[in-house]
Amino acid sequence: MTDPRIELADLVADVHDLLRADRERGVDHREGEQVVARPAEPDRREVAPRQPRQKPRAQRPPAAPARSRPAPQEKKAPTQAPQHQQQPAGNRHSAWGRKKAEPTFGYEHAVGAWGFSTPPPIPVGTPARAAADRLLAVRRELGACQRCGLCENRRSVVFGMGHPNADLVILGEGPGANEDREGLPFVGAAGEMLDKMLQHVLGLGRDKVYILNVVKCRPPNNRNPAPDEVAACRPFLFAQLEAIKPRVILTLGSPAVKTLLDTSRGIMSMRGAWQSWQGVPVMPTFHPAHLLRKPEDKRLTFQDLKELKSRYDHLGGLR
Ligand code: SF4
Predict the structure, then answer these.
(1) Average pLDDT per run of 10 along the chain, which is 319 residues long?
(2) Which of these, 80, 318, 46, lies nearest to 206 by C-alpha position?
(3) Please, what is the angle between helix 254-261 and helix 227-244, to 10°?
(4) At 242, phi and psi to the nearest 5?
(5) Of 188, 183, 127, 132, which is closest to residue 159 (Cα–Cα)?
(6) Which residue CA neighbors atom 4 of ligand 1 most closely?
(7) For the chain: N or C, fewer Cβ within 10 A?
(8) Among residues 276, 98, 281, which one has the least CA distance to residue 186?
(9) Ligand 1 lined by 111 (C-beta under 6 Å)
(10) Cα dihedral angle (256, 261, 265, 268), rounded to 10 degrees?
């Protein structure tokens, strides 16, 4: 039989240990089973280590783990979009002609699929409306394109302009400074030269044709687009042509015909002779910028355009 004095001494020791543990955990007092904590306060008293006893003691429940507050999340500073991702300036062309600048609503509206800030009404269910919808889908897919290095210095993605279902497509090589600023192809002196060629030889305005380039962004210093830049942009050129479904294509300058026909032949050996792209007749001729530098080649270009007009009229092209 155990000595009751030893049992009492053990009980007192247990209570003493419990109180000391509560003090270390910051427990102020106990109400029944509920533990009431007091504000943390460092216990500076040193507690002497207790000698181990022979009798095993009941295990007390472990102290509740201290709650840790989640770390506050860092606020991200607003980042400025790179210039080439910002919206380009609104274009200066109305539905089928030129007029003052209009408010910019975003790149898809300012430089839409057919190059006009206010697209002309095209009746639903017509081939032109279907072509316009296809072109708009290509434009949306292109977006604020960064597929090649030309995106770094451009102001505008110059997609193209004209009739979405044109019978004649005119293909240049890439935008220059004026085109980059305006967001439209063939503006400035070369554009005026092209307008004269169209009007005087073919009797067509820009509203009856579709004008576009091999690359949609301006190469620095007006250099020719590099092969990797052409390769990145070419799928969108082909998608545009497949959306428009032209009957005749006029290419202007060497990079245009080389890209379209995937050939290494130069413009001097190809101009004036009919070529073919997916069954569509292609007439290569000089770029208007070349004619500005070398006016004596206008005569050859005139011959090429006369040949084009004959084919265009024979196919019943849009007037
Ligand atoms: S040139 Fe064409 S591929 Fe390159 S960034 Fe411009 S739109 Fe994209």
Answers:
(1) 65 69 61 47 45 52 47 42 40 34 32 54 80 88 94 93 92 95 91 93 90 96 93 97 96 96 93 96 96 95 96 83
(2) 318
(3) 70
(4) -70, -30
(5) 183
(6) 148
(7) N
(8) 98
(9) no
(10) -50
pLDDT at 22: 65
Can you tell me the distance from the alpha carbon of 117 to that of 103, in angstroms, rounded to the nearest whole number? 9
- As a residue count, the chain comes to 319
Contact 18, 59 (CB under 8 A): no
Does the predicted TM-score (pTM) go above 0.70?
A: no
Q: 262's torsion region: left (phi>0), alpha (psi -120 to 50) or beta?
A: left
How far does residue 8's CA lie from ligand 1's centre (Å)? 90
Structural tokens at position 209: 């044709």
Burial class (CB in 10 A: 0-12, 13-18, 19+), 224: middle
Q: Whose CA is nearest to atom 6 of ligand 1?
A: 217
287 and 172 in contact (C-beta within 8 Å)? yes
* Domains of the chain, start order: 106-314 (3.40.470.10)
